[in-house]
Amino acid sequence: MDTGFFVTWLRDAATRIRLQRDRLTELDAAIGDADHGANLDRGFTEVCKALEDWPPTAPAQALLTAGTTLIRRVGGASGPLYGSAFRAMGKALQDPVTLPGFAAAFEAGVVAVERLGKAAPGDKTMIDALAPASRALTAAVEKGLTPYEAFHRAAVAAEEGSRATIPMRARKGRASYLGERSVGHEDPGAASSALILGALAGVAVKEATKEVD
Amino acid sequence: MDTGFFVTWLRDAATRIRLQRDRLTELDAAIGDADHGANLDRGFTEVCKALEDWPPTAPAQALLTAGTTLIRRVGGASGPLYGSAFRAMGKALQDPVTLPGFAAAFEAGVVAVERLGKAAPGDKTMIDALAPASRALTAAVEKGLTPYEAFHRAAVAAEEGSRATIPMRARKGRASYLGERSVGHEDPGAASSALILGALAGVAVKEATKEVD
Amino acid sequence: MKKLINTAQSVVEDALSGMAAAHPSLRVRERVVYRASGPRAGKVGLVSGGGSGHEPLHAGFVGYGMLDAACPGEVFTSPVPDQIIEATRAVDGGAGVLHIVKNYTGDVLNFELAAELCDDVQVASVLVDDDVAVEDSLYTAGRRGTGATLFVEKIAGALAEQGAPLAEVARVAADVDERSRSFGIALTSCTTPAAGKPTFELPDTQVELGIGIHGEPGRRRVPMASARELAAVAMEAVHGDLPLTGDLLVMVNGMGGTPLMELYVVFAEVEAFIRGKGARVSRSLVGNYVTSLDMQGFSVTVCRLDGELTRLWDAPVDTPGLRWGR
Amino acid sequence: MKKLINTAQSVVEDALSGMAAAHPSLRVRERVVYRASGPRAGKVGLVSGGGSGHEPLHAGFVGYGMLDAACPGEVFTSPVPDQIIEATRAVDGGAGVLHIVKNYTGDVLNFELAAELCDDVQVASVLVDDDVAVEDSLYTAGRRGTGATLFVEKIAGALAEQGAPLAEVARVAADVDERSRSFGIALTSCTTPAAGKPTFELPDTQVELGIGIHGEPGRRRVPMASARELAAVAMEAVHGDLPLTGDLLVMVNGMGGTPLMELYVVFAEVEAFIRGKGARVSRSLVGNYVTSLDMQGFSVTVCRLDGELTRLWDAPVDTPGLRWGR
Ligand SMILES: Nc1ncnc2c1ncn2[C@@H]1O[C@H](COP(=O)(O)OP(=O)(O)O)[C@@H](O)[C@H]1O
Ligand SMILES: Nc1ncnc2c1ncn2[C@@H]1O[C@H](COP(=O)(O)OP(=O)(O)O)[C@@H](O)[C@H]1O
Ligand SMILES: [Mg+2]
Ligand SMILES: [Mg+2]
Ligand SMILES: [Mg+2]
Ligand SMILES: [Mg+2]
Questions:
Q1: What are the UniProt keywords, alphabetically (chains A, B) (predicted)?
Q2: Of A102, B180, C166, D275, which sees the most CB atoms within 10 A?
Q3: Do chains D and C touch (3 or more CB pairs under 8 A)?
């Protein structure tokens, strides 16, 4: 996993978010304020620009650039939360990047979100997608799986985690204002987290295929 | 035609306007400001109250009370115009009331509207119902028709006059602002004039029937 | 239709109760809104009025430096002569009273009837007719009075406050009207409480050009366009009638249902347009001032200022709807 | 959706251009709105901000006696730390800066991040959380900040203008928040420019109770009712949380698409309700102040005044959105 891998991940995440922008906004309209799609689209577009303007020379740098850009350009709840996640991950990431190293850094990112947002699993937030993904990564490392397999499992865990927010009652963020009425809707932040992890798995497929070439 | 005749006329006009209130409002919505039904309903309801509070002792008094009440309670364009019409009619009316006397007084009412509103036939206003009605009354007098026949013809003339406003282009009142777009709609004030003349014919039927008893 | 009202019949009465409760500086009596401080001896009194549904016009402009009394009629229906007579007599401080009348058949007739019956008071009257969407010809009732009413009320009010005589106040009021032009565009119809449904239907893809402030349909419909394009349509219409030069007083006015954010977007375009013509926005107002119930849309009103009018515009005003310098 | 905008992306930028053009008293630089007069040495600086779409909040409250700077984010999205840092540094007159923050996760996080990075400036912060529709418990993000923000900004602004030190300004600001409660009711959803359709669907027969100012759905829906009944629902909710006694500052606030006439109708009912509880409306505000784009509906905010707060409320203020005594 070189710098290019991380740049591709972030770019693919941006593309997926662009494509799913309206779905994210609709999820946010149901239990929030209908801006999550616009927020993340704006943010990841800026991330792509920043990665061109200041091409990173190390994986950690790519993540730090992404995190700082999200904090500086998004606003809202998701800007600081995702921004801090990428920054914490970047700070924790060792070069060269190994799967165990990635898993540990990812967990540092999740912890940063939990700390900043004071949310716990079950609160119906992005944590409910990010935490299962992190657990899946750690488990994959323990089982000695390949990066591709690990990222695939993390993506699936995030997807499942996001869907699992549907029956939850929100206790953090804007959706908590709805009380019982937040039940029955997928959390937009969890859904965007699943997209970002989907991008990760997608890039790993590309890498894996490349290695086969 | 005694005082009771005029009171009944005004009351029946009030009832017809109440029943046609929404239609008048819709006509006014198309080329005006959607208040003609409310305006006349409010006005004639007040007229009925005034006729109870100050029972007229002469036909002219009934018309003066109606006119003054319309001026004092309606506002808008139609308040002063109808108010002045009834007042002018009341001032011109001789006791006892004969058909020729009625026709002359009615013409005085129409002239008052023309003078105040500076509108002429063809301008797509209430005049286009009132003027033909007045002409029909005069013709009926000349032909020596009964009041019932005369009022019936006046009502028909007002109806036809009102419908004839449909293809006209408005040159007075709010509808004139629409220019060409005023074409194709019936003038609300002409329509309400037709209602008032319809009430007149209706009361004359009642009278005629009463005489038969 | 959903409206924050009790009944369609009582809406004007109920709103006036709210105004009276909210503004100790006002006194509401028999459907007339006065300054609580009463008339000032020797000062020309200013009375305006018209249908309700245009708030803050007119009652919100009663106070120091502007109106002495406002006569609100039913929704979109001009007031009755009784109100105007009452108001005229009550605010006369011995120097006479100016009636500020928007040019609508109903307003004109009712104010005329009232003036006739107030023969104990010296009454002058100014007719506001600023809307360039309406041809001013023998074939119309003449131009409508819209946004410029605020300009006339403010500037004449300042002059009256300074003690100018009736003829002078009336002359300047007419001058402000002559120097002012407006044009309005609706994105949606308004809904009157009495009718309970939109006065006109406008598809989501179209706007209505040249609307008035009573939900009267405009002169034509065109496809919805950007703020820049719509501002240009309005400004070209104004400019075609009164060339934009020199120092201008410019109001971008919301029709009641348009949020302030959008009005600022329009103002930016209007200002750029005016600069493009070599003129200058010297004074401005952005907000919902001369409204049409819940209609979405805007109007632009422009007045060519001179030094004296600028001074009068800047003079202190203290009303619920307009306040500065005091 | 029809909106007076150029593009959904540029709406905040374009509206800020309009504000800058309309108000010579403001200076807009890098998405921060300042007083053109700049910071005053020795005066505590007041910075607020939040998502756009609530105009005139916050940028319309920049000026003498109120804010020194406002940081507008994208529509309904809190500003980014950079804006807040810029603003904080720029308005510091040496006496420190108060951040006035509405209690939303996004606003809290971004202001916190900014404050951390401004370690060269003495920063205090007050959290506004007045909306009784939200339970203030471990199971929510706490109450939302809505209408009381205006009260905090006005009163803290007056105190800062008088030269009070940062700790004192922060204390009184928090006191105003503690004494204030709000409740909002929507007749329609708002439509954000980016989404292009209403955030929620609300049938013509229902209203949404306990809404915030971002189109978040409320706590429950009930059948549409009269202004009197809806005012009572809102006031009971407020009264249940903060008993209405003594002298009250009361704002009946429109959500952006509600005409002033209807707000006055609501105010009359609110005032009667308060009188019925034996309390008194001592100061009031009726209008569109803390809005939610084009949403129709209203909120009521009540603050229990004391002599000192009344004096500070009455103190001169001179901003585009609120102006008196000067
Ligand atoms: N305290 C929190 N901890 C973790 N995630 C949160 C928290 N608050 C909100 N979120 C996440 O942020 C998402 C909303 O992001 P976004 O809509 O961009 O911001 P905002 O809520 O400010 O409009 C939510 O769906 C949720 O996943
Ligand atoms: N100058 C005029 N002369 C005669 N009738 C007029 C004139 N102006 C308007 N009207 C009549 O008044 C009617 C409108 O009345 P109404 O809706 O009650 O008043 P407003 O136009 O003030 O809302 C028109 O349909 C027309 O028949
Ligand atoms: Mg959101
Ligand atoms: Mg009408
Ligand atoms: Mg009318
Ligand atoms: Mg948001």
A1: Kinase, Transferase
A2: A102
A3: yes
